[in-house]
C-alpha cells in the first residue's frame, strides 16, 4: 500500500521510515498539503497530514478522487480538517489523540522562564561581550499566581510544575480535573483568572467557542505586568489586540509557540523573504515577546509516540477497526 506523509521535518523522517519499513511504501514530503499540492497524493491510499496542512472540501475531494481512503493526522488538533466533507466523500479520518503532555508543558515553562528572566536579551548581549544587567530584572514565580486555561493532560502537567515553584493555582475549564484540585487549584470564571493571574498559560483546543478566547476584553482584564504564554493554537489569541496591548506598554512578556496565521510560515525558512504579515512582523519587534516555531511538542519522546500512534491508526484502518483516535470512520461503519 502507498502512503504519503506531508510536512515531514528532518528529525521526523527516520522515525516514520522505521515505523512503516517493510510493510508499506512510504513517501515523505516537506510540502504543505493544500489545493496546490493535493494532486501529489494521487494513488496513495493513506495520507499522513500535519497540523498546518489545509484539508478543506476542495483538497479532500482531490484526495478522494485520487484514491485516498484514510487521512491520519500526526497531531492532536484537527481544526484544519473539514470532517463533514470527509464524511460526504467517504474518507476516514484519524488523529493522535494524545502524546507526551510533558513535552508541551515543559516548553510552556521554558517560554515563561525565558520571558520572565529576559534570557534572549541576555544571550544576545553576552555574545557581544556585553555583560551588563540593565533591563534584565525578572521576578520570582514563587508566591505568585498561575492561571491555567485548560486543565487536561497538558494543563495538569503545567500545573504540577507551577505547584513545584510554589505558585497559587487558578484554573478554568468546562470540567474540573481531580488531579489539579489535589494540587490546590481553585477553579474560577475565566474573567477572574485573567484579572488575578501573574502568569496565564493556554492549554485548550481551538474550537468555535475558544476562538479568540484571549480577545481585547480579556487582555484589558490582565495585569499590566502579567505574562501570557500560548503553546496550544494560535487562534486562541486575537493577535492584533495583543499588538495593541503591547504597544500601550502593557504585559511584562509574551511567549508564543503558535500564531493564528502560521501556515506557510512556521516550519519553513523565510529569512530571505519579505514578510507581508504586518501583525506577525510587529509582534517580533517587541523586546518582551518571544516567538518560537511551533516546537513545543518536538521531543524524541513525543514524536516517537506520535509516529507509533499514526502507524497503529493505519493498521487498525486496514483491519477495519476503529480506535480512540478515529474522527470519521470508514463508510461501512456508518
Automatic annotation (TrEMBL):
Residues 11-326 form the D-isomer specific 2-hydroxyacid dehydrogenase catalytic domain. SUPFAM superfamilies: Formate/glycerate dehydrogenase catalytic domain-like, NAD(P)-binding Rossmann-fold domains. Residues 110-296 form the D-isomer specific 2-hydroxyacid dehydrogenase NAD-binding domain. It comes from the Bacteria. Belongs to the D-isomer specific 2-hydroxyacid dehydrogenase family. It comes from Streptomyces carminius. This is Hydroxyacid dehydrogenase. GO terms for molecular function: D-lactate dehydrogenase (NAD+) activity; NAD binding. Keywords: NAD, Oxidoreductase. InterPro entries: D-isomer_2_OHA_DH_cat_dom, D-isomer_DH_CS, D-isomer_DH_CS1, D-isomer_DH_NAD-bd, D-LDH-like, NAD(P)-bd_dom_sf. Pfam families: 2-Hacid_dh, 2-Hacid_dh_C.
